[in-house]
Design goal:
two-stranded antiparallel sheet; mainly alpha; elongated; 2 domains; 304 residues
Length: 304
């Protein structure tokens, strides 16, 4: 057993005693988050370095992380001088051997952009130094990617262990939430059974509404944001695909916006609703029922 001190939903400091599996899950989630933050930073630096090395490169940012982009870096270091030095025919053959389905149009564009870059870029020797830095950043991106994959795999295994210990924990539901995102939520909440009311659960996440006041001043109701910030980040990532027009919360989210609510506030409302959904899902111990999401208990019973 291990314990983790925390600021509780009340105004006192308590300790929650965690089973080792919960403690391991939270630690792996911390490692995942650190790798994710490092990955974002490395990718930003890589994009900046790419503009220095290959000024006229004009593909979407995701291209570098495709098989074609990886081949460009592996064989040419994304250095336009090396591409032009090889000549167009040999460049096309090399890339086609590495990526059989790469389009000729893509190769033509890459070569033209490389030619243009070599005319405006500084010396070949300077490009070699910039290429060296780009390859270092590329290695950083791959390393962070591998760390994230390892953490994700471990978290999914631990969540399955927790489901054996507590069968009320939800199972993944296609189009709603994956087992990985379920593991992320539980990594931050800890045992959901510790929360005997939804209000306490909301306060732990910092998604409870609180009126700002000072003396006789009464402000607007706003989120307290005193709970776990990482849990709020995870929830925002979970609900993002669900607010598409055909998503689970699509009509709800777009209805809020049509009535004048800002996108940020509407997303927060969705996050609160999703956390409520998750809590009810856990407490029921049953399978996911989409008809229950936007119905109160009496309406649901009548429909049933």
């Amino acid at each position: 057993m291990s314990f983790i001190p925390l600021r509780a939903w009340e105004k006192t400091l308590i300790c929650r005693h965690y089973d080792e599996t919960y403690a391991l899950l939270r630690q792996w989630h911390t490692l995942y988050e650190q790798a994710d933050v490092g990955s974002v930073r490395a990718k930003c630096l890589l994009a900046t370095q790419m503009k220095k090395l290959f000024p006229d490169y004009a593909f979407q940012k995701g291209f570098l992380y495709s098989r074609s982009g990886a081949a460009l870096i592996e064989h040419y270091g994304a250095n336009p001088h090396h591409i032009v030095k090889d000549g167009k025919d040999r460049f096309c053959r090399t890339m086609c051997q590495a990526v059989s389905r790469i389009r000729q149009n893509t190769l033509d564009r890459l070569y033209l952009q490389a030619e243009s870059s070599t005319k405006t870029q500084q010396s070949f020797r300077l490009s070699e130094v910039m290429q060296c830095r780009l390859l270092q950043l590329w290695d950083d991106c791959q390393r962070y990617r591998d760390r994230k994959l390892e953490a994700k795999e471990q978290m999914e295994k631990l969540y399955q262990e927790l489901r054996l210990m507590d069968p009320q924990l939800p199972r993944q539901e296609q189009g709603v939430i994956s087992s990985f995102h379920l593991s992320r939520v539980v990594a931050e909440t800890g045992p959901v059974s510790d929360f005997n009311t939804l209000r306490k659960f909301m306060r732990y996440a910092g998604l409870n509404l609180r009126e700002k006041q000072s003396g006789t001043y009464r402000g607007k109701n706003k989120l307290s944001k005193k709970g776990r910030s990482l849990l709020r980040k995870v929830l925002s990532q979970i609900v993002l695909p669900l607010v598409k027009k055909k998503g689970l919360f699509g009509p709800y989210y777009h209805g809020k916006k049509e009535h004048g609510m800002s996108g940020t506030k509407a997303m927060t409302a969705v996050m609160r609703n999703f956390l409520k959904l998750f809590y009810g899902w856990y407490k029921s111990g049953g399978s996911f029922d989409q008809n229950r999401v936007f119905s109160c208990e009496s309406q649901y019973r009548r429909a049933a």
